[in-house]
């Protein structure tokens, strides 16, 4: 992961790229359909899981998330994007997976990210994606984007993930990133080279506008996140 360039995010260790197109598993179902995550929540079950896993402190943060959803319901899209981006960037401290979970790569659910108060780039992106879908932003306009991030002026690159908002399938995406506080068009992020992106309906290679996966594409870690979200009350 690239070294954070603002605030107090923990400096990440260098990592190998964790996934490539060859590690993707094509399948006929993803689990985050339009009527899935982002449309149905079970607040009592979410509260029960948060209380059991992270106690009163985690429960307090979950209530802040519920309040965010209430406040942004029906708000203008730009406000939703900005405030969701800020919410997670301010409340979650960047920490490498090995230091949180004792493993090289772990994709956390939003509940786990909020409860821990720590996470890495995938965790920020997943949490923002789920939150925006819950606010009614169409999933077809959101993609989690794996990129190579260049470090400073060197040729060193590291794996990173951001969330992209696409006004249309062929539009230049706006990037929600935990390393940069403002939401910026992709063309302004010359430090990032896209590898592939995915959401609940497909997989795109690089900057392609056509999905490589039909019917749907998914990552094994993504499947695992969905399973845990179902257990916790997101679906």
From TrEMBL:
Q: Which PANTHER family match?
A: BLR5470 PROTEIN, PTHR39327
The record's listing under InterPro entries reads:
Papain-like_cys_pep_sf (IPR038765), TAT_signal (IPR006311), Transglutaminase-like_Cys_pept (IPR010319)
Q: Which domain of life is it from?
A: Bacteria
The protein's name is Transglutaminase-like cysteine peptidase
Taxonomic source organism: Halomonas kalidii
């Amino acid at each position: 992961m690239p070294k954070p360039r603002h605030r107090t995010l923990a400096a990440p260790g260098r990592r190998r790229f964790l996934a490539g197109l060859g590690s993707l598993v094509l399948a006929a179902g993803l689990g985050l359909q339009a009527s899935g995550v982002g449309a149905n929540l079970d607040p009592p079950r979410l509260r029960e899981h948060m209380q059991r896993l992270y106690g009163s402190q985690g429960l307090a943060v979950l209530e802040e998330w519920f309040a965010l959803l209430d406040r942004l319901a029906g708000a203008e899209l730009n406000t939703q994007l900005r405030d969701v981006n800020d919410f997670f960037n301010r409340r979650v401290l960047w920490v490498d997976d090995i230091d949180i979970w004792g493993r090289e790569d772990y994709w956390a659910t939003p509940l786990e990210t909020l409860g821990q108060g720590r996470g890495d780039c995938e965790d920020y992106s997943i949490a923002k994606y789920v939150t925006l879908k819950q606010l009614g932003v169409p999933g077809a306009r959101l993609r989690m984007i794996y990129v190579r991030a260049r470090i400073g002026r060197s040729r060193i690159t590291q794996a990173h993930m951001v969330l992209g908002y696409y006004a249309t399938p062929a539009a230049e995406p706006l990037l929600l990133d935990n390393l940069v506080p403002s939401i910026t068009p992709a063309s302004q992020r010359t430090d990032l080279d896209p590898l592939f992106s995915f959401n609940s309906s497909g997989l795109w290679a690089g900057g392609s506008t056509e999905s490589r996966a039909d019917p749907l594409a998914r990552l094994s870690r993504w499947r695992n996140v969905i399973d845990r979200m179902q257990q916790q009350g997101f679906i």
